[in-house]
Amino acid sequence: MKNSLTLDRNPRFDIVYLDPPWDYKGQLQHSKPGMGDTGGARKHYGTLKLKQLKQFPMQQLMNEDSLVFMWVTNPHLDQGIELLKSWGLKYSTVGFVWNKMRVNPGFYTMSQCELCIIGKNGKIPRPRGARNIRQYLEHLREQHSKKPDEARERIEQMFPDQSKVELFARHQHPGWAAWGDETENGCMQLREYLSGLGW
Fold first, then answer.
1. Buried/exposed code over 15-45 (b: 16+ C-beta within 10 A; e: otherwise)
2. What count of other Cβ atoms lies within 10 Å of the Cβ of residue 11?
3. How far apart are the C-alpha atoms of 89 and 81, rounded to whole Å?
4. Which of 13, 52, 82, 144 could tie 165 with a disulfide, CB 3.0–4.6 Å?
5. Cα dihedral sign for 174, 141, 44, 42?
6. Tens place of pLDDT for every residue, the chain, 199 residues?
7. Is residue 182 within 8 Å of residue 45, measured between CB atoms?
């Protein structure tokens, strides 16, 4: 099986899934003058500026034919596409539209959806799995920044035989390698490899 977690010394993957710790320049979530601390990303984890994320060695983790599924908040959509291109990937499409089923204030319209965009390296990995996976998903928003497990499960249905990794992960899931500050039981080979690359 290609998704074996016995990783090579220089591990490479067919599918990369990530939710980058986007920097909001210190802005607190939905904060306005006089509203106080409403809890932005910086209250939950360390964030990275776009120029820092561009330095991540993505190409050194990807096989010749591979895909990146990356979550972007709506204000960061342009940065998300720019980030994919900086990694040498072609922006392909929106993979998932997540309806959080809770409405947040916005400067223009009330916000309740988040996007997962897809970047492609080479060609779509083969063999393909399910070809009827829906883009739209509904899942009630939980703790800060947690993405619905259903998105990962849909990726598994689309690419059941491919090697997969989740970056900036909180937990390691069966069949996936994982790397992130909050991942206590992530893959040691991957942690050591990325540490050697400055991460």
1. bbbbbbbbbeeeebbebeeeeeeeebbbeee
2. 19
3. 9
4. 13
5. positive
6. 344 466 777 899 999 999 999 997 655 544 444 444 444 444 445 899 999 999 999 999 999 999 999 999 999 999 999 999 999 999 999 999 999 999 988 889 999 999 999 999 999 999 999 999 999 999 998 876 789 999 999 999 999 999 999 999 988 999 999 999 877 656 788 989 999 999 9
7. yes
